[in-house]
Write a structure and sequence with these properties.
mainly alpha; Helix Hairpins
């Protein structure tokens, strides 16, 4: 993979848009994901996964991509301007150049390793931030859902309390109406009884008055009859010299 560019690693062109680069990263990251069961234990896929991540981190950052594209342009220009010259290296020069190359290569390797470590750390940081944000959004959604549920329960409790009070009020009104009806019925019964007693008393008084009138009329008739006999006897004695009827 030493002759490949970061664009080649992500399988996109150098003119690819950020959206295309991100889509390619997501596709290849999922493809080479070492946590997938079918990729377990495959070190080559893990290296490809790391290479894809490092390429994405470099090309997803506009400043880093700009610098990388500039290095690519300079590299192509150097290759195009290379001229073949006659060898002038001596053995000492070759040894010194080799030592210099070893030092430079070691420094470059250390630098690249440090850059890779920083890139991985940055990727892990971004992933951690994304996960934290996702967890925060989830917690916020759960809190909002809990608030909605709590508000709904309060509304249900208020509605239930209102219905209970309405039932109690209706029951109280019904009880009062029943008592009023019973009171009215009892009062009507007492009034009817009083009227019946008064009527019977009036009837008894009328009967007593009738009997008293009859007795007075009978007494008066008896007195009148006695007077009539006495008068008749008087007339008979005057006429006949004696009382025939007496």
């Amino acid at each position: 993979m030493a002759d490949k560019t970061l664009y080649d690693v992500l399988e996109v062109s150098a003119a690819a848009s950020p959206e295309v680069i991100r889509a390619a990263y997501q596709r290849l990251s999922e493809k080479f994901d070492p946590d997938r069961p079918e990729n377990a234990g495959n070190s080559a896929l893990r290296m490809q996964h790391d290479a894809v991540k490092e390429a994405f981190l470099a090309l997803a950052n506009p400043e880093k991509r700009k610098l990388y594209d500039a290095r690519l342009v300079r590299g192509r220009a150097v290759l195009e301007n290379v001229q073949v010259v006659e060898p002038f290296w001596t053995v000492p020069k070759v040894i010194v150049a080799g030592l210099v190359l070893v030092v430079v290569a070691g420094f470059y390797y250390s630098h690249q390793k440090e850059q890779a470590r920083l890139a991985r750390a940055e990727a892990e940081r971004q992933i951690a931030v994304a996960k934290a944000k996702e967890a925060q959004e989830k917690a916020r959604a759960e809190i909002e859902q809990a608030r909605i549920e709590s508000q709904r329960r309060r509304q249900d409790q208020v509605a239930e309390e209102r219905m209970r009070r309405e039932r109690e009020s209706a029951l109280q009104r019904f009880t009062v109406e029943q008592r009023n009806q019973e009171s009215h019925a009892s009062q009507a019964a007492r009034t009817a009884e009083r009227e019946r007693v008064q009527k019977e008393a009036a009837e008894r008084r009328a009967e007593s008055q009738r009997r008293s009138d009859e007795m007075r009329a009978q007494t008066a008739a008896q007195h009148q009859a006695a007077r009539d006999r006495a008068e008749l006897c008087r007339i008979e004695r005057e006429r006949y010299g004696k009382a025939i009827s007496c």
